[in-house]
Amino acid sequence: PGIEVVACDVTDRDALTELVARHDITGVVHAAGVLDDGVIGTLTADRLRRVLAPKVDALRHLDELCPDARLFVTFSSSAGVFGNPGQGNYAAANAAVDAVIQNRHARGGAGIALAWGLWDRDAGMGGSVDRDRAARHGMTALTDEAGLALWDAALAQGRALVMPADLNERALPRTPLLAALRRDTATSRQRTEGAVGTWRLPGRSRERFVLDTVLDHIAQVLGHTDRAQIEAGRPFTHLGFDSLSAVELRNRLARTTGLSLPVTLTFDHPTPEVLARFLLTEATGAEDPEPATITTPTGTTDEPIAIVGMACRYPGGVGSPEELWRLVAEGRDGMSAFPLDRNWPEDLYDPDPDAVGHTYAREGGFLHGAGQFDADLFGISPREALAMDPQQRLLLETAWETFER
Predict the structure, then answer these.
(1) pTM metric for this prediction
(2) What is the count of structural domains for the chain?
(3) Cα Rg, the chain, nearest whole Å
């Protein structure tokens, strides 16, 4: 018999029930996975649901609808065993998957959860930064050959949960998982006192030392061998940072300096140079004398105000104050047909005003070229630019043009 490929949303129980009823399913391999990483404080209900639904909801449906499947395998993750910084939702989803399989196993059904370690691939659940981070914590990325061999070995175990991974025992953390929650007061005090000694170095030496310290930690987080490979003026997003590596850098710097640092550290201070200046200010600001308050008398004046720069964007192809004046002077209409760069459906227009998902207007006040944005000019990565609100991009452009004029 040939292979039939069928698309089905397995989180939709009704759709899955209909699919299972049409086929004699004897084996199930559930390999769904979605990432939406972020520290705990940023995880909304929607972000939790997005990660949990394809893993937990889908697996529960498959478990209920395929009780007699002789092969029942689900791809879990070592994140559910060890926990990963910045992946609370993903770790919870995989821990729940493991629990579903253990319950199925206890009921006498066939089932195994494979809590995979990281694979040596840029696609899927891991990139180069993830591999370097995992290696520092004792986990080497799996090659395809090693992964397939572990698949065979795991299925032969007859257990409900197996973690196929390449672990370096010497690099594994030696402290219990919860030991990181307990702080040694004496150690913390010594670390802080050492940091204060650094802040008292002469001005230029102190600035260089702090920047070198920041670059050293960045190199370790990204897996580089030398801080010389890090450009101090380059944005963190261009250096290859994501939310997990940003949190790791923040934690390292907090331990080194003894300062209380926000989790948004690399977003608030987007380059190593800017971050180093911030750390220096935070550490030495309390020792600096407060500047004298200068009171300047204010009064009314009749002097004219000079407008030296303007920029704007308006419908009708208006991209400058001069073009706006021409539009008004010539009495032209600023309305236009739908732009072609919005990915709107071709049948968006419908003369019926009650048609759902359509518009009965053929024209509107649109800003053409809204997708044209020079991300490099503002030190923004292409990926970050795609995620930005178009209004934010337009504001950056017009603000730049205002000063440029």
Answers:
(1) 0.49
(2) 3
(3) 29
